[in-house]
Amino acid sequence: MTIELVSAADRPDLVGPAEKMGGSLWPPYISTPAYFEYWNDLYKGDLARFQTIAIDSETGTIAALGNCIPFPWQDDLPDEGWDWVLETGGNAARQGTACDAVSALSVGVRPDHRSSGLAQRMLEAMKSAARAAGLGIMVAPVRPTRKHLYPLHDFETYCGWTREDGTPFDPWLRTHTQMGATFMKPALRSMTVTGTLEQWQRWTELRFPQSGIYWLPRGLAPLEVDLEKGIGVYTEPNYWLRHPLD
Ligand SMILES: CC(C)(COP(=O)(O)OP(=O)(O)OC[C@H]1O[C@@H](n2cnc3c(N)ncnc32)[C@H](O)[C@@H]1OP(=O)(O)O)[C@@H](O)C(=O)NCCC(=O)NCCS
Q1: Which of 50, 204, 233, 240 is the one with CA 20 to 30 A from 220?
Q2: Alpha helix locations (H) across the chain?
């Protein structure tokens, strides 16, 4: 099986199908205000060359999508990881502000192409795009893929778990560290999703008889429901990792 990697700048015709495939991999509630405001900008102008699409050459179908965004570096990365970096990078692109760093935003590999090294290739493609643009730093607010299966353990405890060989317990954190990435700091408010109770019912098939916290399918933290206000708030923690770019 041959997988070809192209940028969205090279193949704008593939952006629609790639977004359709990539979007299908995420929980239905992962859409924050920053996403609605800036996500489509990733495929416009200079940002398009940072978006990587993997095509299965045999079938012509989309095997993976990787998104990242340049941003002006700051030493103290904030708790609002993913939302912050998408907004900061998005504004930098709109205003023509110089950037010296890149942040991964998402890697989505179609289930039948997983465990093949493709996810790592997608991260390598982000690094290549960053190097080609003269950016010297790469970070990622990482969403550990198995955290949702361990809802009773707090986020930082889970991220600190290791296997017997000393590598991270979580497979996605492990893939990053096997590429040389290092843990920087938690981003405990990386994505904030606020929805009406009707929206949360639709997204989760749960019902909310009282205010308080609820287990959330595929969530990395509980959903907080406020019946008086008629809203639910999900605050997703991620972990800032830094990748070597040399
Ligand atoms: C996160 C995601 C991209 C990871 O993709 P993946 O293919 O499952 O993961 P990896 O490439 O890291 O590899 C998984 C396994 O394949 C193994 N592998 C890696 N390269 C390989 C190769 N060339 N041949 C065989 N196996 C390989 C890895 O060692 C790993 O095995 P391990 O768990 O025993 O260590 C994928 O699960 C996904 O799309 N999830 C939905 C979206 C998401 O949550 N994205 C992450 C947040 S941005």
Answers
A1: 50
A2: 15-24, 33-38, 81-95, 118-132, 155-160, 171-178, 197-204
- The total domain count for the chain is 2
pLDDT of residue 133: 97
Instruction: Residue 203: give the domain boundaries.
Output: 193-234
pLDDT value, residue 1: 74
Q: Whose CA is nearest to atom 32 of ligand 1?
A: 171
Distance 92 CA to ligand 1 centre (A): 31
**Whether residues 217 and 105 fall in one domain:** no
168 with 211, same domain: the answer is no
CB 58 within 8 A of CB 2: yes
119 lines ligand 1 (CB under 6 A): yes
- Both 132 and 230 in one domain: the answer is no
Widest pairwise Cα distance in the chain = 54
Q: Is 128 in the pocket of ligand 1 (CB under 6 A)?
A: no
What pLDDT is attached to residue 246?
Answer: 81
79, 130: one domain? yes
Nearest ligand 1 atom, CA 107: 48
Atom 23 of ligand 1, nearest CA residue: 117
